[in-house]
Amino acid sequence: MKAKTIGYFKNVQNVGYCKAAVDLKVGMGVILDRAAKTANLPASADEAKACHRIVTNINDKPEMHNYSETVEVKEGEYVRADDLTSVANMEMEFADYEINGGVDSVDAGDTLVFGTDGLIVKGTSDGYKVYFEVIEKTAYMGKGILAVIRVQ
Q1: What residues contact 83, with CB distance under 8 A and at least 6 apart?
Q2: pLDDT on residue 57
Q3: Which of 1, 91, 102, 111 has minimal CB crowding within 10 Å?
C-alpha cells in the first residue's frame, strides 16, 4: 500500500501510540482501542464496516538489509494507524497480496472494502464508513491497483 500523492502525507491524521494485538501488515484495516492502546483486526462484519484506519508503518529497522516486500508489524510493536477519513478522495495503490482474492478478480469501477482479515476485498459500499473505488490496474509491486479513498 502506498499513498499516490504528497497531499496524503500532508493531510493524514494518525495514531502512533497503539501496539499491535496480533501480527499485522501494511495495508491492513485495523480497529483501535485507544484506552487499552491496542490495534486489532476487525472482529466482526460490523467492525469491518466501521473500520477507517489503515496500517502504514515504514521499514524503520535499518539493521535489516534483506526484508520482505511488505512491512510486517509484529504483535507488541507500535502501529501507525492512518485515519482514512482525513484523506477522503485521495488516491492510494494496493499490491496484489494486499487484496483478498488478488488483483485478477478486480476491475476498474469495482468497490473494495475492509474484511475481517484486515485485507481489502471486493464488495459493495453499503454500510461501510470507508471504501475504495478502483480506477485502474497498475504495475505496483508487480501487480496492483490504483483506487480512490471514499468516505460515507
Answers
A1: 12, 13, 14, 15, 52, 53
A2: 84
A3: 102
Nearest to 36 by CA among 96, 73, 79, 65: 79
Q: Which three-class secondary structure state does DSSP give residue 14?
A: strand
Q: Please give the single-letter amino acid code of residue 5.
A: T
The residue assigned the cell 501507525 is 80
Cβ contacts of 77 within 8 Å, gap of 6 or more: 19, 20, 57
DSSP 77: S
d(CA 127, CA 125): 6
Asked whether the whole model's pTM tops 0.85, one would answer: yes
- Give the integer Cα–Cα distance in Å for 19 and 99: 23
